[in-house]
Known about the structure:
By secondary structure, this protein is mainly alpha-helical. It has one domain: 23S rRNA-intervening sequence (de novo design (two linked rop proteins)), CATH 1.20.1440.60. The protein is built from four helices and no strands. The chain has helices at residues 8-22, 35-54, 59-85, 93-115. α1 (8-22) packs antiparallel against α4 and α2 runs antiparallel to α3 (59-85). The radius of gyration is 15 Å and the shape is elongated.
Amino acid sequence: MRNFRELEIWKKGIELTIILYQQSDLFPKEETYGLKSQVLRAAASIPANISEGCSRSSNKEFIRFIEIAIGSAFELETHLIIIKEIDLFKADFDELFSRIHTLQSKINAFRNSVKK
């Protein structure tokens, strides 16, 4: 069993999730069960899947959860692109996208290193 708390990708996923929760008050009230909910669930899913994968006994299962985390990162990016395009609220999207892209790259590199 791996210690997920030591993984940089888990730590970065937690940081991103906290940032998005802190900014969640920027969403209009009518988006509480729409894009706001989708963004927060996708963000929280990244570190949650990394930690769940760490509990798995085989590398194959572990990699599967790492790939789910990558998928959640891309889902999150898509939701934020929509929010930016429809001008739902003002945020530092460049900073958010930079964090997401860095996390996507790091998760992908980690997955590749586990596969070897």
